[in-house]
Amino acid sequence: MVATKMKHARSTNQNPKCDLPEAKRIVIVDDHPLFRKGLEQLINSENSFAICGEAGNAAEAMEVIRKLNPDLAIVDLSLPGANGIELIKNIRAEFSRLPVLVLSMHDESLYALRALRAGAEGYVMKHEAMANVIHAIHEVFNGRPYLSPAMAAQVITKFAHRESEDETDAVERLSDRELEILELIGKGKDVREIAKLLHLSPKTVETHRSHIKDKLDLKNSREVARFALQWLSTRNA
Question: Given 1.10.10.10, 1.10.3720.10, 3.90.400.10, 3.40.50.450, which CATH number is that of 162-236?
Answer without folding.
Answer: 1.10.10.10
